[in-house]
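One example given next:
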Amino acid sequence: MYKLLIFDWDGTVIDSTARIVSSMQAAARDLSLPSLEDHEAREIIGLGLPEAIRQLFPGINDDMIEPMRERYAYYYLEGDNTPTALFAGVQVTLEALRDRGYRLAVATGKSRKGLDRVLAQTGLGSLFEITRCADETTSKPDPHMLHEILAETGVAAEHALMVGDTEFDMEMAQRANVGRIAVSYGAHHIDRLGKYDPVLEVHAFAEIARWLETVQGVCE
């Protein structure tokens, strides 16, 4: 029986893909780095920011990582007065899952500062028992983030599910022996996620709760 549901954030809970892409492109322009196509910037969504920058710009000097991070944060936060929208059905679905007895967690490539900000903006913070961010542990797809969540909650891997929109989410969960739910509306095409043998592929967030009710009812 599944007891713990672990959610990625960007591209899974909030519709932030376009904002991440445009912010990364603008930051690269400011620093005279090679221009980025949309599809290139989408590829790194889900990684911690230093890892994402290194993947986008192989061979980049270490002393350019922090300026790139700062410029990216500047552009991403310019839109702070208009918070990125939740995907349809997210809040009601998360509340329903909690009320059915599921324990909820977040495993994200965002920074701790960034996640805390958006949890406050959305009002979802109280729904999650535990959250882990890339700047306080190892970035996806390394499974260490999930190992920490499982250890802190005391839940065995076979009783947990990871919900995500990228190959990084799926690979991390597979390496941690955690079940996987792939969402089709995020950064990576659903066909790429399918090779990690998810137990479910969904096209809308609310489908997660309906499927869980069908396969096991209320969590005890």
Notes: The chain has a mean pLDDT of 94. The two ends are 9 Å apart (CA to CA). Strands lie at 4-7, 103-108, 130-133, 160-164, 179-183, 200-202. The chain has two domains: 4-15+84-216, 17-78.
